[in-house]
Fold this sequence. Notes:
Layout: H1 2-25, H2 30-37, E1 40-44, E2 53-54, E3 60-61, H3 63-76, E4 82-86, H4 92-97, E5 103-104, H5 112-117, E6 120-129, E7 131-136, E8 150-154, H6 159-171, E9 175-179, H7 183-191, E10 197-201, H8 202-210, E11 218-220, E12 228-235, H9 239-258, H10 265-271, H11 275-281, H12 287-290, H13 297-305, H14 308-316
Parallel strand pairs: 1-4, 1-5, 8-9, 8-10
Antiparallel strand pairs: 2-3, 6-12, 7-10, 7-11
Bound molecules: glutathione (GSH).
Amino acid sequence: xxxKKKASRMMAVSTLLATxxxxxxxxxxxxxxxxxxxxxxxxxxxxxxxxxYLTDDGEWAGLDVDLCxxxxxxxxxxxxxxxxxxxxxxxxxxxxxxxxVDVLSxxxxxxxxxxxxxxxxxxxxxxxxxxGFMTHAEYGIDSVEGLDGAVFCLSPxxxxxxxxxxxxxxxxxxxxAVVIExxxxxxGAFQQGRCDAITNDVTGLAARRTLFSDPExxxxxxxxxxxxxxxAYVPQGDAQWRDIVTWTAFALMNAEELGVTSQNAxxxxxxxxxxxxxxxxxxxxxxxxxxxxxxxxxxxxxxxxGNYAEVFERNVGAETPLKFERGHNRLWTDxxxxxxxPIR
Length: 344
Ligand SMILES: N[C@@H](CCC(=O)N[C@@H](CS)C(=O)NCC(=O)O)C(=O)O
């Protein structure tokens, strides 16, 4: 009896090993390609202050850019090994499905139709947003109802376009659309008065407004009309790659939850006192290897990019021109929506 039990357990182990090996063989996907190329190609937006923009030193920076950097640190050991590919809202999914980019990290909302149709798989929300409205301050409008009959500047291929149609349609409000693909031209047209209003993710509106020559001349209205869970998409059907991008985002959130920062990660990794921290930083367990990475994958991302709080504060927090509050983007332990699955 005892012998039998042992034999069946041995069989279970060998089946498990075979499955693991098979999974390993099936893994000749994007991870291998990115490692061989030694560069991550990340699809981003341009001119979005705090999220994805070129600094005066010609470096890419922002909250969306930091996700690309974290993945490069986890996969290639170096946050700088990223080639940034500027995409528009309209061409972003083609860039992903055609293999032009390995990851799309550009204020893209997770929706059912995108997950189902566009050759893309969503990873996990990186920033919870909602759709808002901006108009010319001189109109003296204080709510969306005041925009009945307005001309809107719209970005094609966005959820903003669809939500506007729903929201206005349901209320019997009307609008005219001026559709412009490139964001700089879109916001330029709005500033020049070609449209009465513009609608997009609230953060997008606020971010672009900081770049206006006269930000005070434009008002953000109070209504937020939709849920916009933004995060990275990867090409469809590469489970290993999707896991890597998803868990890199979770790693930075877990780091915040556990009090691990870019500054103390090295020390905490060596002291090994807390099992959760040791697993996250790779001083215990082989989680990195299971993803096809080295066990210090998360450690490298945290040291080079910071935990989620560091990323948030550096790019869009109180000390930046955007001065965003954490709001929905607080950890669940602080009443927010960030609930990173456990690394164990
Ligand atoms: N989250 C929305 C909207 C994202 C979006 O594309 N926003 C605008 C403004 S921030 C944009 O980038 N438009 C111009 C461009 O594609 O360059 C979506 O996924 O559709």
